[in-house]
TrEMBL record:
EC number: 2.7.13.3
Range covered out of full length: 117 to 386 of 398
Ranges for domain Histidine kinase: 41-257
Chief location: membrane
Keyword set includes tRNA processing: no
Keywords linked to the UniProt accession: ATP-binding, Cell membrane, Kinase, Membrane, Nucleotide-binding, Phosphoprotein, Transferase, Two-component regulatory system
Reaction(s) catalysed by this chain's protein: ATP + protein L-histidine = ADP + protein N-phospho-L-histidine
Record's GO cellular component terms: plasma membrane
Protein name (Swiss-Prot/TrEMBL): Sensor-like histidine kinase SenX3
Amino acid sequence: TGTVAVRVHASPLPEDRVLLELTDVTELHRVEKVRRDFVANVSHELKTPVGALQLLTEALADAVDDPQAAARFTSRIQHESARMGRLVSELLELSRLQGAEPLPAFSPVSVDRVVNEAADRSRTAANAKRIALHRTGESGATVSGSESQLATAVGNLVRNAIVYSPEDTTVTIDVTETRGWVKVAVIDQGIGIAPADQARVFERFYRADPARSRATGGTGLGLAIVKHIAGNHAGRVEVSSMPGNGSVFTLLLPSVALSARESAPPPDEI
Ligand code: ADP
Protein backbone atom coordinates (compact mmCIF):
# COMPACT_ATOMS: atom_id res chain seq x y z
CA THR A 1 0.00 0.00 0.00
CA GLY A 2 1.11 3.52 -0.69
CA THR A 3 -0.13 7.04 -1.37
CA VAL A 4 -0.74 8.55 -4.76
CA ALA A 5 -1.22 12.26 -5.46
CA VAL A 6 -3.64 12.99 -8.31
CA ARG A 7 -3.59 16.19 -10.39
CA VAL A 8 -6.18 16.90 -13.08
CA HIS A 9 -5.04 18.90 -16.10
CA ALA A 10 -7.72 20.37 -18.42
CA SER A 11 -5.61 21.30 -21.40
CA PRO A 12 -4.12 20.84 -23.94
CA LEU A 13 -6.30 17.82 -24.78
CA PRO A 14 -9.69 17.90 -26.66
CA GLU A 15 -12.64 19.21 -24.59
CA ASP A 16 -14.14 15.88 -23.51
CA ARG A 17 -10.85 14.64 -22.09
CA VAL A 18 -8.71 15.43 -19.09
CA LEU A 19 -5.18 14.46 -18.26
CA LEU A 20 -4.64 12.72 -14.91
CA GLU A 21 -1.16 12.95 -13.43
CA LEU A 22 -0.44 10.32 -10.77
CA THR A 23 2.58 10.70 -8.53
CA ASP A 24 3.74 8.15 -5.99
CA VAL A 25 4.19 10.21 -2.81
CA THR A 26 4.56 7.25 -0.43
CA GLU A 27 8.23 8.02 0.29
CA LEU A 28 7.52 11.74 0.66
CA HIS A 29 4.78 11.00 3.21
CA ARG A 30 7.06 8.59 5.08
CA VAL A 31 9.85 11.16 5.31
CA GLU A 32 7.33 13.79 6.44
CA LYS A 33 6.04 11.45 9.15
CA VAL A 34 9.56 10.61 10.36
CA ARG A 35 10.29 14.35 10.56
CA ARG A 36 7.04 15.10 12.46
CA ASP A 37 7.64 12.21 14.89
CA PHE A 38 11.20 13.41 15.45
CA VAL A 39 10.11 16.97 16.24
CA ALA A 40 7.40 15.61 18.58
CA ASN A 41 9.98 13.39 20.32
CA VAL A 42 12.48 16.21 20.74
CA SER A 43 9.80 18.53 22.11
CA HIS A 44 8.69 15.88 24.58
CA GLU A 45 12.26 15.11 25.63
CA LEU A 46 12.97 18.80 26.26
CA LYS A 47 9.65 19.46 28.00
CA THR A 48 10.38 16.93 30.74
CA PRO A 49 13.61 18.50 32.06
CA VAL A 50 12.33 22.04 31.49
CA GLY A 51 9.20 21.27 33.55
CA ALA A 52 11.31 19.66 36.27
CA LEU A 53 13.67 22.67 36.34
CA GLN A 54 10.74 25.07 36.73
CA LEU A 55 9.35 23.12 39.70
CA LEU A 56 12.76 22.64 41.28
CA THR A 57 13.73 26.31 41.07
CA GLU A 58 10.39 27.27 42.66
CA ALA A 59 11.00 24.71 45.41
CA LEU A 60 14.53 26.03 45.88
CA ALA A 61 13.24 29.58 46.23
CA ASP A 62 10.84 28.38 48.96
CA ALA A 63 13.60 26.46 50.79
CA VAL A 64 15.64 29.48 51.94
CA ASP A 65 15.30 28.42 55.60
CA ASP A 66 16.03 24.76 55.01
CA PRO A 67 19.64 24.31 53.80
CA GLN A 68 19.31 20.51 53.54
CA ALA A 69 16.28 20.70 51.27
CA ALA A 70 17.98 23.47 49.29
CA ALA A 71 21.04 21.23 48.75
CA ARG A 72 18.77 18.40 47.56
CA PHE A 73 16.96 20.66 45.08
CA THR A 74 20.26 22.11 43.85
CA SER A 75 21.68 18.69 43.13
CA ARG A 76 18.55 17.69 41.19
CA ILE A 77 18.72 20.95 39.23
CA GLN A 78 22.32 20.08 38.33
CA HIS A 79 21.25 16.57 37.24
CA GLU A 80 18.37 17.82 35.06
CA SER A 81 20.39 20.62 33.46
CA ALA A 82 23.29 18.23 32.74
CA ARG A 83 20.87 15.83 31.03
CA MET A 84 19.39 18.68 28.98
CA GLY A 85 22.88 19.78 27.98
CA ARG A 86 23.71 16.23 26.84
CA LEU A 87 20.45 15.99 24.93
CA VAL A 88 21.15 19.19 23.00
CA SER A 89 24.76 18.25 22.21
CA GLU A 90 23.76 14.71 21.14
CA LEU A 91 21.01 16.12 18.91
CA LEU A 92 23.60 18.34 17.25
CA GLU A 93 25.96 15.39 16.91
CA LEU A 94 23.22 13.28 15.30
CA SER A 95 22.24 16.02 12.86
CA ARG A 96 25.92 16.41 11.87
CA LEU A 97 26.20 12.66 11.34
CA GLN A 98 23.05 12.57 9.25
CA GLY A 99 24.74 14.61 6.59
CA ALA A 100 23.87 18.17 7.55
CA GLU A 101 27.62 18.77 7.33
CA PRO A 102 30.20 17.18 5.05
CA LEU A 103 31.91 14.08 6.40
CA PRO A 104 35.20 14.78 8.15
CA ALA A 105 38.32 13.79 6.26
CA PHE A 106 39.16 10.16 6.94
CA SER A 107 42.67 9.16 7.94
CA PRO A 108 44.28 6.01 9.35
CA VAL A 109 43.14 5.53 12.96
CA SER A 110 44.61 3.13 15.51
CA VAL A 111 41.70 1.21 17.01
CA ASP A 112 43.76 0.27 20.08
CA ARG A 113 44.43 3.94 20.84
CA VAL A 114 40.73 4.88 20.45
CA VAL A 115 39.72 2.02 22.74
CA ASN A 116 42.44 2.68 25.35
CA GLU A 117 41.46 6.34 25.54
CA ALA A 118 37.75 5.49 25.85
CA ALA A 119 38.62 3.08 28.68
CA ASP A 120 40.70 5.77 30.44
CA ARG A 121 37.89 8.32 30.15
CA SER A 122 35.42 5.84 31.66
CA ARG A 123 37.52 4.82 34.67
CA THR A 124 36.06 7.36 37.06
CA ALA A 125 32.48 6.30 36.25
CA ALA A 126 33.45 2.62 36.56
CA ASN A 127 35.28 3.14 39.87
CA ALA A 128 32.24 4.93 41.31
CA LYS A 129 30.33 1.62 40.92
CA ARG A 130 33.34 -0.60 41.73
CA ILE A 131 33.12 -1.96 38.17
CA ALA A 132 36.34 -3.56 36.96
CA LEU A 133 37.12 -2.24 33.49
CA HIS A 134 39.21 -4.74 31.51
CA ARG A 135 40.89 -3.97 28.24
CA THR A 136 41.87 -7.09 26.28
CA GLY A 137 43.26 -7.91 22.82
CA GLU A 138 45.80 -5.38 21.54
CA SER A 139 45.14 -5.93 17.81
CA GLY A 140 47.44 -3.38 16.22
CA ALA A 141 44.54 -2.78 13.79
CA THR A 142 44.12 0.39 11.77
CA VAL A 143 40.88 1.60 10.19
CA SER A 144 40.27 4.48 7.83
CA GLY A 145 38.03 6.93 9.59
CA SER A 146 37.39 9.85 11.88
CA GLU A 147 39.16 9.40 15.21
CA SER A 148 36.72 11.67 17.03
CA GLN A 149 33.66 9.82 15.67
CA LEU A 150 35.14 6.45 16.59
CA ALA A 151 35.99 7.76 20.07
CA THR A 152 32.36 8.86 20.46
CA ALA A 153 31.05 5.45 19.31
CA VAL A 154 33.26 3.41 21.64
CA GLY A 155 32.71 5.91 24.47
CA ASN A 156 28.91 5.57 24.14
CA LEU A 157 29.08 1.76 24.27
CA VAL A 158 31.35 1.77 27.33
CA ARG A 159 29.21 4.39 29.06
CA ASN A 160 26.09 2.24 28.55
CA ALA A 161 27.88 -0.89 29.76
CA ILE A 162 28.68 0.91 33.01
CA VAL A 163 25.30 2.63 33.39
CA TYR A 164 23.25 -0.55 32.82
CA SER A 165 25.35 -2.75 35.12
CA PRO A 166 25.07 -3.25 38.86
CA GLU A 167 27.96 -2.52 41.20
CA ASP A 168 30.86 -4.97 41.60
CA THR A 169 30.66 -6.36 38.06
CA THR A 170 33.09 -6.40 35.14
CA VAL A 171 33.08 -4.58 31.82
CA THR A 172 35.48 -5.86 29.16
CA ILE A 173 36.49 -4.06 25.99
CA ASP A 174 38.04 -6.52 23.58
CA VAL A 175 39.59 -5.80 20.18
CA THR A 176 40.31 -8.47 17.57
CA GLU A 177 40.99 -8.46 13.86
CA THR A 178 39.76 -11.32 11.69
CA ARG A 179 39.92 -11.56 7.90
CA GLY A 180 40.28 -7.80 7.49
CA TRP A 181 37.51 -6.86 9.91
CA VAL A 182 38.19 -5.18 13.24
CA LYS A 183 35.83 -6.16 16.01
CA VAL A 184 35.44 -4.00 19.12
CA ALA A 185 33.32 -5.90 21.64
CA VAL A 186 32.01 -4.22 24.81
CA ILE A 187 30.93 -6.97 27.19
CA ASP A 188 29.03 -6.31 30.41
CA GLN A 189 27.39 -8.32 33.18
CA GLY A 190 24.48 -5.93 33.47
CA ILE A 191 20.70 -6.02 33.25
CA GLY A 192 20.65 -7.27 29.64
CA ILE A 193 18.10 -6.50 26.94
CA ALA A 194 14.96 -8.50 26.06
CA PRO A 195 14.91 -9.97 22.51
CA ALA A 196 12.00 -7.70 21.47
CA ASP A 197 14.00 -4.59 22.42
CA GLN A 198 17.31 -5.64 20.89
CA ALA A 199 16.58 -4.48 17.34
CA ARG A 200 14.94 -1.28 18.53
CA VAL A 201 17.56 0.09 20.92
CA PHE A 202 19.41 1.65 17.94
CA GLU A 203 16.37 3.83 17.10
CA ARG A 204 16.42 7.45 18.22
CA PHE A 205 14.80 7.87 21.66
CA TYR A 206 13.96 4.17 22.05
CA ARG A 207 14.61 2.90 25.56
CA ALA A 208 13.95 -0.52 26.99
CA ASP A 209 13.21 1.11 30.35
CA PRO A 210 12.47 4.85 29.96
CA ALA A 211 12.42 5.61 33.70
CA ARG A 212 15.79 3.97 34.26
CA SER A 213 17.33 5.71 31.24
CA ARG A 214 16.18 9.14 32.45
CA ALA A 215 17.25 8.51 36.03
CA THR A 216 20.76 7.73 34.82
CA GLY A 217 20.93 10.90 32.69
CA GLY A 218 20.33 9.00 29.43
CA THR A 219 19.07 10.75 26.31
CA GLY A 220 17.98 7.75 24.23
CA LEU A 221 20.31 8.90 21.43
CA GLY A 222 23.61 7.19 22.31
CA LEU A 223 23.11 4.02 20.27
CA ALA A 224 21.52 5.86 17.31
CA ILE A 225 24.75 7.86 17.18
CA VAL A 226 26.86 4.68 17.33
CA LYS A 227 24.85 3.17 14.47
CA HIS A 228 25.38 6.24 12.29
CA ILE A 229 29.09 6.29 13.00
CA ALA A 230 29.40 2.58 12.15
CA GLY A 231 27.54 3.23 8.87
CA ASN A 232 29.79 6.19 8.03
CA HIS A 233 32.75 3.81 8.36
CA ALA A 234 31.18 1.09 6.17
CA GLY A 235 30.75 -1.05 9.28
CA ARG A 236 27.92 -2.05 11.57
CA VAL A 237 26.99 -2.42 15.24
CA GLU A 238 25.21 -5.40 16.76
CA VAL A 239 23.97 -6.56 20.12
CA SER A 240 23.65 -9.96 21.67
CA SER A 241 22.09 -10.14 25.10
CA MET A 242 20.07 -12.12 27.61
CA PRO A 243 17.93 -10.29 30.18
CA GLY A 244 19.70 -10.59 33.53
CA ASN A 245 22.81 -12.01 31.91
CA GLY A 246 24.58 -9.01 30.46
CA SER A 247 25.06 -7.70 26.93
CA VAL A 248 27.70 -7.70 24.24
CA PHE A 249 27.74 -4.74 21.85
CA THR A 250 29.99 -5.27 18.86
CA LEU A 251 31.31 -2.60 16.54
CA LEU A 252 32.57 -4.14 13.31
CA LEU A 253 34.79 -2.01 11.05
CA PRO A 254 36.70 -2.78 7.86
CA SER A 255 40.43 -2.58 8.52
CA VAL A 256 42.62 -0.40 6.33
CA ALA A 257 44.00 -3.51 4.62
CA LEU A 258 40.47 -4.66 3.72
CA SER A 259 39.16 -1.26 2.55
CA ALA A 260 42.14 -1.10 0.20
CA ARG A 261 41.17 -4.49 -1.27
CA GLU A 262 37.40 -3.74 -1.25
CA SER A 263 36.70 -7.46 -0.94
CA ALA A 264 34.95 -9.91 1.41
CA PRO A 265 31.59 -8.95 2.97
CA PRO A 266 31.48 -8.74 6.79
CA PRO A 267 31.63 -12.19 8.41
CA ASP A 268 28.21 -13.54 9.37
CA GLU A 269 29.39 -14.62 12.76
CA ILE A 270 30.87 -11.90 14.86
P1 ADP B 1 20.16 5.94 26.76
O1 ADP B 1 20.57 7.36 26.81
O2 ADP B 1 18.74 5.71 27.19
O3 ADP B 1 21.13 5.00 27.41
P2 ADP B 1 20.97 4.65 24.26
O4 ADP B 1 20.59 4.97 22.85
O5 ADP B 1 22.41 4.70 24.59
O6 ADP B 1 20.12 5.64 25.17
O7 ADP B 1 20.41 3.21 24.61
C1 ADP B 1 19.05 2.91 24.31
C2 ADP B 1 18.51 1.90 25.31
O8 ADP B 1 19.17 0.64 25.14
C3 ADP B 1 18.74 2.27 26.76
O9 ADP B 1 17.72 3.13 27.26
C4 ADP B 1 18.70 0.89 27.44
O10 ADP B 1 17.36 0.49 27.65
C5 ADP B 1 19.29 -0.03 26.38
N1 ADP B 1 20.74 -0.31 26.59
C6 ADP B 1 21.78 0.28 25.95
N2 ADP B 1 22.96 -0.26 26.33
C7 ADP B 1 22.66 -1.22 27.24
C8 ADP B 1 23.44 -2.18 28.00
N3 ADP B 1 24.78 -2.23 27.90
N4 ADP B 1 22.76 -3.03 28.83
C9 ADP B 1 21.41 -2.98 28.91
N5 ADP B 1 20.62 -2.12 28.24
C10 ADP B 1 21.23 -1.25 27.40
